[in-house]
Amino acid sequence: xxxxxxxxxxxxxxxxxxxxxxxxxxxxxxxxxxxxxxxxxxxxxxxxxxxxxxxxxxxxxxxxxxxxxxxxxxxxxxxxxxxxxxxxxxxxxxxxxxxxxxxxxxxxxxxxxxxxxxxxxxxxxxxxxxxxxxxxxxxxxxxxxxxxxxxxxxxxxxxxxxxxxxxxxxxxxxxxxxxxxxxxxxxxxxxxxxxxxxxxxxxxxxxxxxxxxxxxxxxxxxxxxxxxxxxxxxxxxxxxxxxxxxxxxxxxxxxxxxxxxxxxxxxxxxxxxxxxxxxxxxxxxxxxxxxxxxxxxxxxxxxxxxxxxxxxxxxxxxxxxxxxxxxxxxxxxxxxxxxxxxxxxxxxxxxxxxxxxxxxxxxxxxxxxxxxxxxxxxxxxxxxxxxxxxxxxxxxxxxxxxxxxxxxxxxxxxxxxxxxxxxxxxxxxxxxxxxxxxxxxxxxxxxxxxxxxxxxxxxxxxxxxxxxxxxxxxxxxxxxxxxxxxxxxxxxxxxxxxxxxxxxxxxxxxxxxxxxxxxxxxxxxxxxxxxxxxxxxxxxxxxxxxxxxxxxxxxxxxxxxxxxxxxxxxxxxxxxxxxxxxxxxxxxxxxxxxxxxxxxxxxxxxxxxxxxxxxxxxxxxxxxxxxxxxxxxxxxxxxxxxxxxxxxxxxxxxxxxxxxxxxxxxxxxxxxxxxxxxxxxxxxxxxxxxxxxxxxxxxxxxxxxxx
Length: 707
Known about the structure:
Blueprint: H1 12-36, H2 38-44, H3 57-61, H4 65-72, H5 91-125, H6 132-141, H7 145-169, H8 177-217, H9 235-261, E1 263-264, E2 272-273, H10 275-282, E3 296-297, H11 298-301, E4 305-306, H12 309-356, H13 371-413, H14 418-460, E5 473-479, E6 487-494, E7 497-505, H15 509-528, H16 535-549, E8 563-571, E9 576-582, E10 586-591, E11 599-600, E12 605-610, E13 630-633, E14 639-643, E15 651-652, E16 657-658, H17 661-670, H18 676-691, E17 700-706
Antiparallel strand pairs: 1-4, 2-3, 5-17, 6-7, 7-8, 8-9, 9-13, 10-12, 10-14, 11-12, 14-17, 15-16
């Protein structure tokens, strides 16, 4: 195992960063609701922010007399009525004093808990002797540090939330409706901020434990298996949290500031509204309604809301600050999620290549307790068994050679011992039979490991019925050649767009399956970090990620691993499809004549063959060019087919030839009158009849959808 740089242990940095983001989200919101409530405080204390009489007679004449009378009728407040929002005895002052006190205590608790981890890594970096008790403590508690640190830093927020809830329930503790409304709004925000702080600390520390710390506390032998007390984690859950943060956090911040900026017309306490005021309130829509020029009854418009100029400015500032904070959260969560998935996969793929090159004792580190961790653990078990099998067979072969030499010498020297040698040969035959049986059992164990990998690959692929949520009719034919497949299909939704791809990775079996898992992971990463993207842009980014991950340079003798893929982005609202392909075409069959059709049937259907770019996803011996993006206007009942080369390249028939694209197109045209499920059955039956007793030579994948 290569020596790695020993990292620093984050303790205080993690606490300060999370606390800073907490206050960076809370303080602007507090300023927002406080600044928004200045007019209410002014009315409550009978304070005039603008001296109307000092503006001049011309401006005073422009103000409606009923509005001036309403301002003149504001009752004077009780001089003893003191608004204690930010005063020493106010709710916010007590809130922050208690919060800072609890934060100080939590920092001290965090220091006590993390100081031994920090000391351990400091001694390790300086290559000094580490006490046995310190190593045992750090090893025993390392995997619990994400949860413990997040709880230590979040307990003050939980305590202050409980305190605030008691403070709100006991309404006599807060004087006035304005103060209570401000504190309740602030209370709701602290709930969200506390949850975000907990998730931030937990996933940051968990990322560092899995990627940086774990292999410095556990030995390589221990990390061949999962060292986690809880197993069975799901990549899906981690991606779901990252997707939720990406989607909902900015939206919630925008909605909160927007709702808080709304002002009800009813709050103006006007008895009627003039035509000019109505036109200001609803704009040009006022001309549509058949109203006269007399003042309108407030009952007609009192249920409406509006945003005044000052609130709109405050709202935009608040939204901008909130979006900036959410961008920090989203960027970090996506980064940690990507590294936690792609990092272990790269290590595993590297070891698989070394094993394929003849190194039978390459073990990978089991860093996570999810499907990738289970896959790495299964790979290590398979590697150990292969190594043991090779050693056992080599030892038996050496022993067999020695025995044969001894028996041969005896035959040359003493002819009378031929009968004894015959018996010895029979014994050797028995040993060979035993070896054959042993190898058969070993092969069965290896197949069990590969079948386990098949379940992992099936869990990562999208469910077969996922397209049913969007499309009324479709089918998927998926037949791996060697249990696990180098072919894969992928689909997801972005608003009104359906993204679907069919890909064929280099090779098949276990090597192809690992490349397919890498491709699926990168497609999810590309789509999650892009709000709007074209089909060719997805392939461009996928090619860059694959070349970088496989360390491809184009040098002579380098493995040419890559992916052939057909990518379609379908706008289900406008029936427009974008297509981009790397060595994989797409067929569109339509009832009636169509421009660009290359084949037609007697029943009136025509087939359009959309050609791909003649280059793969990966390093290419010729000049790398951008992928082409083709846009097609779809029609209702159009049939779209995406497929790998396994179906058309299958050998069979009387002459033992490939099925060929020509007959595949004719078969698709002949079955167009049938539903997609019936088409799937016909395609499978035709393939089995053509294949006969010939074994399957490649992975087979065909996807058909009807618009």
